[in-house]
Write the C-alpha cells for this entry.
Amino acid sequence: MSTLATTTARMFPAFTSLWEDFLNKDLLEWDGDLTTTTPSVNVRESDKDYRIELAAPGMKRDDFNIELQNNVLTISTEKKEQKEEKLEGKFLRKEFSYQAFQRSFALPENCEKDSIKATYTDGILNINLNKKYVEAITTSKKIPVK
C-alpha cells in the first residue's frame, strides 16, 4: 500500500490528498461540497402582504419551479452542468455539476392565492403574497330557551 501511495503522490498530488481525506475521515465528519444546499430565506409580514426572499445566486429565472398545491407553496430548482476538456480525442478532464434544492411553505388562510407574484433580481427570488381581508364575525344572536 505504501508503494501505491508514494507513486500516486508523485504523479497526482491532489488525488493523494483527496484519497487520504476519504480514507481517514469518518463518513459523518465528511465536509466535502455536496453541491446540494438549502438557500437562506427571509419571510416578512406587513399589514398588506407577506414577502418571501430566497437567496439563490447564480441561478436564472427559468431555473425556478414554483408551485402551489393544497395551500403549500413549493419553490424548487435543478441545475446540471457538464464541462469537458479533450486532448486528441481522449478525455483529459470531464466534470459534472449538479445543484438542486426545494423549500416549502404552508400559507396562512388570509393569503390571496390567485395574486402570488415572483421576481428574481440580483440573486434574490422575491415572492409577494397579498393578504385578503377576512371579516371578523362579530354578529351575535339571542337564542331563546323553550
About this structure: Strands lie at 41-45, 49-55, 64-69, 72-87, 90-106, 117-121, 124-130. Residues 1-9, 12-16, 24-35 have pLDDT under 50 and may be disordered.
